[in-house]
Structures are given as structure tokens and as C-alpha cells.
Design brief:
By secondary structure, this protein is an alpha/beta fold. It is 41% helix and 18% strand. 34% of the residues are buried.
């Protein structure tokens, strides 16, 4: 049985956070969608998910926030030894990051995808779907419960390659 899987959205502007969670609402059928307004709030949530049955599959994080910048948070989380963060896919989401910030995010933050604001809701859903599919494969989870929801082709290929060979 798969652990309880989370998608964490971190954004300091309430209207933007509401729009993101609205765009990702369909994922709630299989994932817990958590919204945080700051890096500190996200860290508190993550520390509370330390049980063995919880995993953060994806983090969508704004870059420009009061307090800790999104890139700094993602670098910190990449270096964390919290079990809930193993294999977590990280998406930097911003309208203000410069070229140097983007390079820092990719080189040091373990960023798996960069998404600029404003975003196309369908593109956001596609990106999250692909990142979650990658998470399921890398974490070696049972893909069957998610087959109709994530990238069916990639998950089917993964199952074909990792299915035990029968002695029949």
C-alpha cells in the first residue's frame, strides 16, 4: 500500500495561492493538497508529517516571499534528511526571479521544473502530473491506484520493466 502523498504549495499572496489550489483541485482525489503562506509555515507542516505513512510528492514554491526566499527554502529542503522529503519533486514558481536566481535554483536547489507567472492552468496541471509520475517511479510506489490519473504510458512502461518474472 502506498503512503499518504502530499502536494505542498507555498505562496505568500493569498489570491495566487487560492488560484493555484483551485487549478490543482482535481489532484485531491489521490493527493493531499496543502497550502502554506510562508517558508516557516511550510517547515512547520513538514515537521508535522514525520510519520511513516506520509510523503511529500511535490512542492510548488514561489520564489519571492517575505522572510526566506523560495530558492533558499528549496535548497534547505534538498539538504534535509526528513524521510517525508525523499524523492520529492520541486517546482519553482515565480514572476520575478532573474537569470542568476534561476541558475542558483537549478544548480543548488534541486529544482525539477521552473514555471513562470502568470501561468496557464492546463500547463500547470500537466507539469504537476509529470512531476508526480516521476515521483511515483523514483519512489518505487505501486502505480496501479494512480494509473488512470497520472501519465499512464510512463507508469505502464515502469510496471512492465519492474514486474517480477514468473517461474511458470
Amino acid at each position: 500500500m502506498n503512503p499518504k502523498l502530499y502536494i505542498l504549495c507555498i505562496e505568500d499572496e493569498p489570491e495566487v495561492l487560492d488560484a493555484i489550489t483551485r487549478d490543482l483541485a482535481d489532484f485531491e482525489a489521490h493527493f493531499c493538497l496543502e497550502a502554506c503562506a510562508s517558508a516557516e509555515e511550510a517547515k512547520t507542516l513538514l515537521n508535522g508529517l514525520s510519520d511513516e505513512d506520509s510523503r511529500v510528492a511535490a512542492i510548488l514554491c514561489d520564489h519571492v516571499m517575505p522572510g526566506q526566499r523560495g530558492i533558499e527554502l528549496l535548497i534547505e529542503l534538498t539538504e534535509s534528511d526528513l524521510p517525508v522529503l525523499k524523492h520529492t519533486r520541486k517546482i519553482l514558481f515565480t514572476g520575478q526571479a532573474g537569470h542568476e536566481d534561476t541558475i542558483e535554483a537549478i544548480n543548488h536547489g534541486g529544482i525539477d521544473h521552473y514555471l513562470a507567472k502568470p501561468w496557464d492552468p492546463d500547463k500547470l496541471v500537466d507539469i504537476i502530473r509529470e512531476q508526480l509520475t516521476t515521483y511515483v517511479i523514483q519512489a518505487r510506489l505501486d502505480p496501479l491506484p494512480l494509473l488512470s490519473f497520472l501519465n499512464r504510458e510512463r507508469l505502464t512502461e515502469y510496471m512492465r520493466k519492474h514486474q517480477p518474472i514468473s517461474d511458470v
